[in-house]
Write a structure and sequence with these properties.
Rossmann fold; 293 residues; 3 domains; two-stranded antiparallel sheet
Amino acid sequence: MQRPLPGSVAETVALLAAGRYVADASLGTALFLALKLGRPLLLEGEAGVGKTEVAKVLAEQLGRRLIRLQCYEGLDAAAALYEWNYSRQMLEIRLAELAGEGRDAVAETIFSEPFLLKRPLLMSLEEGGVLLIDELDRTDEPFEAFLLEILSDYQVTIPELGTIRAAQPPIVVLTSNRTREIHDALKRRCLYHWIGYPDAERELAILHARAPDVPARLSEQVVAFVQRLRATDLFKLPGVAETIDWASALVALDQEALDPEVVNATLGVLLKYQDDVVKVAGEQVEALLADSA
């Protein structure tokens, strides 16, 4: 059952909090305005800071279907919008030939909606819901150009069927890890918000919300250690997702407090590159533990 949109920034923050997403006022404001104005919201930030989770929680709390388009290099309209079911069309042609049907009748039949394979963008235009275009920076500029009409007018033209317009435009959330710059033409159609790493207080609140089984003392130690770790020179700093995973891993190991041995043994949960693990392990771990104590 669909629920009404929040009526204020405070209600938007509370909506996310009900889905165990701890948002600050700036994110709450950007999301409220996107919902109020019917504009797509582009979220940028490092991997693991909670961009994708915004769309997931929003769909869950508003009672709407989440339709996700996971972007990748080489993504095209056929994979994102629609394509024809060629194998079924060929079967229909063969059956029509056996039945002696005319060519015009067959052509009209096989280019109809039952033979259309709907992909995320077309599904979102027909159904509404929450459309998540995830990691847009993995695609290329031609695909961005393809999105312009959809994000501007919430419509698309299929030559064989005509123009399909959204009766109820979807809520659109786009995310980018900023591995490349998104084109200005697309950005102008969106409201924009950067999600950075949280401060210690908010990260602790996130950890309590997402991993309530982690003891309070261990949660404080984990957050303090990660906060110090992000101040070091690493190839890839740990995100909030890694903080949650690491705390959960420590609980699975029956740890109630951090010590150098267990931190060194579990660095692979927190850091995803061997060079970073080597740089931090050993003396650096002891120093970070001392600083965060």
